[in-house]
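From the pipeline queue, job 12 of 40. The input is one protein chain; the requested action is below.

Action: predict structure.
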Amino acid sequence: MSITLKGDKEIENIPSVKRKSLRINLNDNIYGTFAEIGAGQETVRNFFRAGGASGTIAKAMSAYDKDFSDAVYGIESDNRYVTEARLKRMLEHEIELIEDRLSRNKHPEKLFFSYANTVATIDFAKKFKGHGWVGVKFQLDPLEGYNEIILHIRFKQTDARLQQETLGVLGVNLIYGAFYMNDRPKELLKSFYDNLDSDQIEIDMINFSGPRFMYVDNRLMSLQLVKNGMTDAVMFGADGNNLLPAQVLYKKNILALRGSFRPVTKVNVDMLEKAQEMFLNEKTVDKDKTHVIFEITLSNLRAHGDINERDFLDRAELLCSLGHNVMITNFQEYYKLVEYFSEFTKKRMALAMGVYNLIQIFDEKYYRHLSGGILEAFGKLFFKDLKVYLYPLKDQETGDIITSETLKVHPRMKELYKFFKYNGKMLDIKDYDPKILDIFSRNVLQMIAEGKEGWEEKIPEKVAEIIKDHRLFGYSKRRFSKDN
């Protein structure tokens, strides 16, 4: 990889932390402030050590005392300090100060920036490894508005000093990428791990904004986090903006529906609605603290080869239109998904699934990597406060309706199946719509691609309208008009 910028020498391969810091320092136009809370001034220290920092650093500060921090940045409504809201307030405050105190007439070519982080490193008992918010607000043209990159990190190391050093490297990578790689956001994202290992830090949320990132779809950036192994799960909301899973799911009841959603069909919607009714009728479920999630696995996105970003965005567009949060995960097995949810909540959780998915759960080949095999997986899956709501399957040859009562599993799995079936962990969705059991996403997708009539009747009306309006999944109005 080679990177060039007018007035700078070419840097080949991955530059070191010192080289990145020095390149920033030697650029006469880049000038800004550093505000770091919670792990020392680890990022700015790299710029001081590199040399030539006087032309880059306007100010470096650490408002550690809470009262002092509140006096500088104001008081948050939730009285918390390691939050996205706090980070944004820090970035905005520091930019306002530098704009107010430096004359544009005197410094017409200056590109101002503010870098900030607010983190909590590992606690003394080492039960909580720590996390934090990191961001940069910056200009690429003095006459343009500011751009912003904000990300959330989770520390993996078990030593506070090592976490501080890791944060310092990440900060340098972020500032360097903002100024020198902003036109290649995917490469910029990967560069966050320059001079770092994946077992040091996890990045589980990122958002780009500003005039230079108008073309960036943050959902695609979320996908890149999972695809690159930077995290195992990401989430975005109905508005398309990325969300922090830990923040959304904390102490919540969770109902998840896994699928390909290519496209969303009436079966998906019926399954979700009926499962939600059953879930909310549970005594331990609080309606106001319940989150419904559509989940797509990375392996599903790769089912037809390399990930097709257009196809991913088509699915995301439809799921967002239904008003629920969407998760992309690297959890092929259900027990891993439940374990992930359990990091954030001890409340009751539920999975809505079809019979076919349940059959896969009882397939031993998915658990050969576990020393305890399928028994270990089921222990992890059902040890939690979990319910499975099962949607029936219509046998396309016989017309029989398959439920948990009539499902046949491998003889070796029969007793295990009975155990989990009759202890109340699995419940059949009985109030389903029998008229839609012949609908399958793959058939609907083929009808759309081939320009056949009748596909609209198999999916929600709103979804059909979006497919037509946005020409999703290869839909062509001209082809339908010509053929029909």
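Job complete. The CA atoms of residues 393 and 402 lie 5 Å apart.
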